[in-house]
Design goal:
The structure holds two protein chains of two kinds.
Chain A lengths: L8 E5 L4 H12 L3 E5 L13 H12 L3 E5 L6 H15 L4 E4 L14 H29 L2 E6 L2 H6 L4 H21 L4 E6 L6 H4 L4 H13 L8
Parallel strand pairs in A: 1-2, 1-4, 2-3, 4-5, 5-6
Chain B lengths: L8 E5 L4 H12 L3 E5 L13 H12 L4 E4 L6 H15 L4 E4 L14 H29 L2 E6 L2 H6 L4 H21 L4 E8 L9 H13 L8 H5 L7 H7 L11 E5 L2 E4 L18 H7 L18
Parallel strand pairs in B: 1-2, 1-4, 2-3, 4-5, 5-6, 6-7
Antiparallel strand pairs in B: 7-8
Helix pairs in contact in B: 1-9, 3-4, 4-6
Classes of the chains: A alpha/beta, B alpha/beta.
Chain lengths: 228, 309
Amino acid sequence: MAKRLEGRAAVVTGAGRGIGRAIAELLAAEGAAVVVNDLGAEVDGRGASRRVADEVVEAIRARGGRAVANADSVADFAAAERIVETAVKEFGAIDILVNNAGILRDRMIFNMSEEEWDAVIAVHLKGTFNCTRHATRRMREQRRGRIISISSTSGVYGNSGQANYGAAKDGIAGLTRVAARDVGRYGITVNAVCPGAMTRMTATAPNAASRRARASAASRSATSAPRT
Amino acid sequence: MADMLAGRVAVVTGAGRGIGRGVALGLAAEGAKVVVNDYGVALDGSAPSSGPAFDVVEEIRRAGGEAVPNTDSVATWDGAARLIGTALERWGRLDALVTCAGILRDRMVFNMSEEEWDAVIAVHLKGTFNCVRHACTHMRERRYGRIVTFSSGAGLFGNPGQANYGAAKSAIGGLTKVAARDLGKYGITVNAICPVAGTRMTVNEEVRRARELRRQQGIQREDRGVAQIEELDPDDVAPMVVYLASEHAGGVNGQFFLCFGSQVALVSQPRPVKTLYKADGDWTLDELERLAPATVLEGLVNPAPPKEA
């Protein structure tokens, strides 16, 4: 059977681990050429290692797929342009953008520092804007594109201790709704996914165990509103 | 003067004009002492001036109320600290915070500059966080507080040309929901207003030109036209804000209210509406291709369908 994404070029941010890595690998398995972006930072955003993105690229290539690594930070407007342009330079286009990169700095709001707020907003919200902004310029010329941004039930329902993350993720939802209306006419779709998954990011949260139960309950329960 | 807020102290940001001014006057009319904050800038955030804040303070005082001006920018951590400190230094307490301050820099997302994004996020989102953060530490100690933030349908429903504003307003919604859960146990409520009103932010020549351009290009906004917005008095938003800022609204927390004209509507919050289940393992693409279109995706409408080039 023909692969669904043969000839398409994709960028996945934060693709070195967790959900992003799984997305990058499945895109590649379906024939897409993938820019595996990952700064290689710790969960709180500190540090950087190119190895993280390289490993995923090696894994994709080992299965016969096409991929290149990129270790730029999505939080930087100019660097985000480099991420998008890597797809254009290496694969000739950018058909798919998955905005997945993110960090966590949980704290009750009355104790949250300015730095904890700024760091999370910068990577999630500004990072998603940066990549979306640069990708839509290319996609608009191409008259085709798919953008999928990762929002979160934390923003949708409001998780205690995550004012920065919840705001960023609801901000991404708002950005998604506006961008869908800005670029739909050019053949570009913009949608968001709110995942429930255990990754190294959620594992570090203070109430990881209860969140694991909640995510599991949310994925199993049909129409009942998940508890907040 | 009524006394629903007698003895209470409030801070209102962006209170020099428009909705914020109406809120400040409304709180003062109910007996609250009000810090009238306004950076006094032009609509795009430039050229600060102390005029608007002082004018509203004068208006409150002439009506027999108590108020002091503050002209700090909420967008800076220290500016917000000074603003909250103004209430504490002058009156020794802070009972209510209303965060109206905001600016606009509309642009289609593919043309939006970094500076246009940053400026709008800084005032709306960071400004709201800065004020809530500094206010809530004091409110938590006193085990009482009322916080009213300003979100918008532009973010919750999506307006073309407002990626920065829509993201900021939606993010304020997320901040509001989390803050409500962080602070509720300390007797503090945090709710959001989604207003529609004719102010210099929503009705001006630039907005008219942009709307006309969109109309010519066939890009529809889902909100009302300028003509209808012009008829919506910003002062109409104040009563619900004053109510939420009072003791009476202690049981209302983490909620969103759409306010325009004589209407106050409770806004629903996103919940799953349709779910696909699989008993074992992850969905395969074959399965999703077969099942999703007639189930979770059934009846969805593209808000901006593709147009021929």
